[in-house]
Design the sequence.
């Protein structure tokens, strides 16, 4: 997958069933059916790095930040709720990032859309 980090993230997010994009706090953000946010882009707005923030299951933020502070961080404003920050101004495995985004999506998507992910034509397995 080629393109800017924003283009790559946008492609990953919008490939998920019912995902929509709109600006939130001046940055591109992705929602399930326009309601529940699962990821947002951060282009130097809140710190000096290019990153995205995403919803994370309990314990994931701590584990990933501890394992690799060069790639992951606790974002401001939403970090206390367990959201995970992912730097995209460093080399990243975009297949792994797609899984990380899908995990965030799974946290907020309704069962009907989660079932679409499980189908052979969906993104998931």
Sequence:
């Amino acid at each position: 997958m080629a393109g800017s980090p924003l283009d790559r993230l946008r492609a990953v997010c919008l490939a998920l069933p019912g995902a929509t994009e709109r600006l939130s706090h001046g940055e591109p953000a992705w929602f399930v059916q326009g309601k529940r946010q699962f990821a947002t882009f951060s282009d130097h707005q809140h710190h000096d790095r290019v990153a995205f923030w995403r919803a994370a299951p309990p314990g994931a933020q701590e584990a990933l930040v501890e394992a690799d502070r060069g790639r992951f961080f606790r974002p401001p404003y939403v970090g206390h709720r367990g959201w995970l920050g992912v730097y995209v101004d460093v080399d990243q495995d975009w297949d792994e990032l797609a899984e990380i985004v899908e995990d965030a999506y799974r946290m907020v998507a309704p069962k009907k859309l989660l079932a679409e992910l499980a189908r052979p034509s969906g993104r998931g397995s």
